Amino acid sequence: MLGASGSGKTTTLRMIAGFEQPTTGEVLMVGSPITGLPPFKRDINTVFQHYALFPHMSVRENVGYGLRMKGVPRGEREERVSQALAMVKLDQLGARSPRQLSGGQQQRVALARALINRPRLLLLDEPLGALDLKLRKEMQLELKHLQTRLGITFVYVTHDQEEALTMSDRIVLMRQGRIEQVGTPRDLYDRPASRYVADFIGETNILAGTVVQEGPRPVALKAGEDLVRGWSDAALPVASTAWLSVRPEAIQISAEGHPATGDSVLTGKIVDAVYSGSLLRVHIRLAGGQLIVAHAPAGTAPGIGDRVRLSWDAERGRCGND
């Protein structure tokens, strides 16, 4: 579940967990209603951003706490704790206290504690938000591999679009308590259902204009003095207002006066070029004043103030009129 702060992600997660009750509707799990069940009867566990580990207990004691509360015999409990710690690669650290662990290690302890009861569903509420960038990326891959091995459904809440694209099989994008789009990461990135989705997922350029040739095949928009084309899944009536989204990596940059390939061609002036490791983020100001961002190989050296042509193929742009 992806969305900005206040979109309803955590509230929805809390209703699934049983910490909040819906005012209307019901929560179903594998087709069966669970709305009236208390949290401890839902076969669901939750991992929060703040790990809520017991500071006075060792790692092993933290992980096995739930089993102890359920009265699981000591021998079985110890075996399952060992298995859970091995699963998250902490089997050598069971005797330590939480304060002796790094943030990533504490997160693994919280995961082991949540998974040791073998829930049917694991809820994760921005669990990596407190980690630094490098560790967060490592943990994203670890969580994805762990989910694949276990076969348990993870419902993961985040406001980080890159994290959602990296980890998810399916994304629910929320906005102000409503669902904007549900689909695979590629669906949301390549085929946004609304201008909001296009703008929220990744980086894009939005051009507004008037439809002069309707879809659902390539749509032609008059944006200022320029004619641009993109793809639409629905017919957009001629003379209606619409938007076109084109990703920076879809735009080709060529020097003014050189031939430009593509169904849409714009001209502008380079105002900035930001080095980002493997590529340059080139900022181009169009004649009408709009700023466009395009990607260029890091080895190139576009000159600030140079006039250039921008082009892209129609199928790389997406149009809508919401």
List keywords for this structure.
322 residues; alpha+beta; single chain
Which overall shape is indicated by the principal axes computed on the Cα atoms? elongated
**N- to C-terminal separation?**
22 Å
Number of strands: 18
- Average pLDDT across residues? 90
Task: Compute the CA-based radius of gyration.
Answer: 25 Å
What string gives the helices and strands in order? EHEEEHHHEHEHEEHHEEEEEEEEEE
List unreliable stretches of 5+ residues.
none
Q: Order of strands across the widest beta sheet?
A: 11-10-9-12-18
**Secondary-structure-derived class:** alpha+beta
Proportion of strand residues: 25-35%
- Helix segment tally: 8
What does the model show?
With about 325 residues, the chain is of the alpha+beta class. It has eight helices and 18 strands. The strands form five sheets. The protein has a five-stranded antiparallel sheet with strand order 11-10-9-12-18. A five-stranded antiparallel sheet has the order 13-17-14-15-16, with no helix packed on it. The radius of gyration is 25 Å and the shape is elongated. The mean pLDDT is about 90.
